[in-house]
Write a structure and sequence with these properties.
single chain, 4-stranded antiparallel β-sheet, conserved putative lor/sdh protein from methanococcus maripaludis s2 fold, 5-stranded antiparallel β-sheet, 42% strand, mainly beta, Elongation Factor Tu (Ef-tu), domain 3, 2 domains, 16 strands, 200 residues, elongated
Amino acid sequence: SQATIRAPVAGLIISRSVTRGQIVAAGTELFRMVRDGRLELDAQVPEAELPLVRAGQSAGITADQATGPVSGRVRIVTPEVDPQTRLGVARVALNPGSGLRPGMFARATIDVGAAPALTVPAQSVVFRDGKAGVYVIGANNVVHFNQVTTGDRAGANVVIASGVQAGARVVVQGAGFLGDGDRVTVGQRAAAPAAAPAAR
């Protein structure tokens, strides 16, 4: 017997999973459609920057195929981070009339506004066993290696997403020659406080 399939809403069919005359089980996906022409962009966001992205933030979209400026808003930020790429996903709902079609490649710039960011001099960040970190100066000028998660560069500094508290003294010069537990002599440029929060 034949059956008529009716979509619950108006929209554009972008893929078909069945052929005419095929027998399918209940719950099988037959078609995939874009409701009322609505499109979303899955924007990949680095793990360190993911906490800055929130639903409702505006986004500018650039694409080679776009006929003009395209904008949208973040609808949702997925809670998962890809363990291989360390990227999360922000789903950006595109405004009507974008001219883009499903499957196209685009780039999003999300306006996260001004947010505090902890920074240290870029030369303070060293790698031990493949992990980024800084040497924090403790009691009696003994240093300890703190593993950190880094973000964007901010001039001569680098944003620290986690691993160091604001105000901690970190080694600036010669950090690459130190080991955990070494004692240092603190000079004017040998150490610097983890910088006061900077606007992002």
